[in-house]
Amino acid sequence: MIELNKDNFDAEVREVQGPVLVDFWSPKCDPCMALLPSVEQLAVELEGKVKFCKVNALENRRLCIKEKVLGLPTIQIYNHGEKVVELTKDDATEANIRAELAKF
Amino acid sequence: MANYQYDLVIVGGGPGGMAAAIYGARSKISTVVIEKNRPGGQIATTEEWENYPGVPHTSGPEEMKGWVKHAEKFGAEFVKDEIVNIIDKGDTKVVVGKQHTFEAKVVVVSVGAEPRVLGVPGEREFRGKGVSYCATCDADFFTELDVVVVGSGDQAIEEGMYLTKFAESVTVIVLHDEGTLDCTPVLKERAFHNPKMKWVWNSTVNAIKGDGIVDTVEVKNIKTGQVSSLEANGVFFFVGMVPQTGWLKDIIALDNRGYIIANELCETNVDGIYAVGDARQKFLRQVVTAAADGAIAATAAEKFIHEEEGFREMVLDQEIPVVVSFWNPTKPATMDLNTRLEAMMEAYKGQVKFVKIDTYRNLRISRKCDVKDIPTVVFYNKGAMVDRIDVNVEVEAVEAKVKALLS
């Protein structure tokens, strides 16, 4: 998974054709740490079909606020540079992510 | 067909489930903990933890990693899955997950509770956009910003003080009159001395507003009805918990608030299903009480398995009739009776089996056979109770019934 920060977010997400998943997480967020292995597994499964990125919120607070992410875990899915899905908190589950990605 | 078979299946990996795993695995019964997220439970979302005996100060996530290791050390296994049903098949329970199925001799339900949603306008809309129920998850976002905490119990005040390490100010919305909080006095005193903590009394949240992310919290004074606005980017709700027992309502008995009804041994109304921790009816919901439940349930479960298996083997599965004599060492008369019964039964060797059961060490079986006092003699044939003599047991009467069974 590609690590995002304020310098590469647009290039890696907004300027990309096709689906991109962004996982906003923090090492201090227990639900995020529980979810992350499933997302990493999905990244392997869907390699070549969906691009997987992650944002360490602890180190990229300004970027999170700019992207209007103020709660973790949050999963955003972009398609052709447009944000099409956002799953946050209890909705950010492996099953929901799979269901959303299956639509592409 | 079950994917997995265990003696003890524990549903939920919070402190109650983990303590049950430690006690179960250490008593050498095969044990698995099934957790839909990461093991740890609610306490793993608390950074400041200072009321576990012998542990003056620790962080929830760190401490719980140690509990997992402790359970694994004795051989407990951990599986990630979400359980959706438990099917009672008498001797076994089938625990159905979204991904796997587990066959268990005993199930410990340790499903815990989750934060209560107040349901005010904007609460759902701004979840993850400023509305939060988890300070450790989201505190960093609010560095040098203003936040609101709703509630005044232990959790609200503890988490509120944790937030002051990040936020510029933490305004607590309290339902009660000035100076009254629901939390313990030691927390109250500390909170009142914290310069970053501010207080709004006799009030509740009316609505949460913002443009994409939270910027305003509308507060209503319940005495005057007056509504005022607070500028804030974060709203943390700590207004109690609800047990995660919706899926259990047709499986075990719940009270009208959804808490599992269980007795002192953590037994539910279904034989072989135990309940521990925050999801059951109890006076105090803390890690220390959840852990105590776990220890009790696992010990009861271990006895359950051994008693049930022993009884099945010695009594229920026998091809010939069985005479069961209930006794215990505190009543010498029952020991004397056993000696005389044994002598009488010699004549029927090979035709009728004689079994002695100590009621002290076999509480379950004694209860199952409805033994109210001893001596009591119960007659089994092909796995079913066919006759009994309560209290006034004479050797002659037992022999008469043995003869009747053989005729």
UniProtKB/TrEMBL annotation, chain A:
GO cellular component terms, alphabetically, are: cytoplasm
Q: Which InterPro entries match?
A: Thioredoxin, Thioredoxin-like_sf, Thioredoxin_domain
Keyword terms: Disulfide bond, Electron transport, Redox-active center, Transport
Task: Pinpoint the Thioredoxin domain residues.
Answer: 1-104
Q: Name one GO molecular function term.
A: protein-disulfide reductase activity
Protein name per Swiss-Prot or TrEMBL? Thioredoxin
UniProtKB/TrEMBL annotation, chain B:
Where does the Thioredoxin domain lie? 306-403
Keywords (alphabetical) are:
Disulfide bond, FAD, Flavoprotein, Oxidoreductase, Redox-active center
* Pfam families, sorted: Pyr_redox_2, Thioredoxin
Give any GO molecular function from the UniProt entry.
ferredoxin-NADP+ reductase activity
Stretches assigned to the FAD/NAD(P)-binding domain: 6-294
Q: Which PROSITE patterns match?
A: PYRIDINE_REDOX_2
In the UniProt record, does the keyword Manganese occur? no
Which EC number(s) are documented for this chain? 1.18.1.2
Q: What class of enzyme is it?
A: oxidoreductase
Quote the PANTHER family the UniProt record gives. THIOREDOXIN REDUCTASE 1-RELATED-RELATED (PTHR48105)
This chain belongs to the protein called Ferredoxin--NADP reductase
Cite the source lineage.
Answer: unclassified sequences, metagenomes, ecological metagenomes
